[in-house]
Amino acid sequence: MRPKKYVNAKDVLPEHLIEEIQKFVQGQHVYIPQVNRKPWGTVSGMRIELDERNRAIILCYQGGLTIAQLSEQFALSEERIRAIVYENQTK
């Protein structure tokens, strides 16, 4: 069973707040983002893993490996390797 994707404002908000919102939006769906939403990959640890991989790519590139060699070594396209290397150069 899938969780409900929305809640009715009348079920969770006080009437005066609904009236204020209705001054701007009526009869439409309104998305309210989470306050403490964590950036992509921080919960799973994937962001750290990718950052470490990208640092390794940059160090290898600075050490003399070519884009083609890095592409083979890290199993990424040459375009992705270039993006990682050049993104670092603009920082």
UniProtKB/TrEMBL annotation:
This is Mor transcription activator domain-containing protein. It comes from Paenibacillus ginsengarvi. Coiled coil: none annotated. Transmembrane segments: none annotated. Signal peptide: none annotated. It comes from the Bacteria.
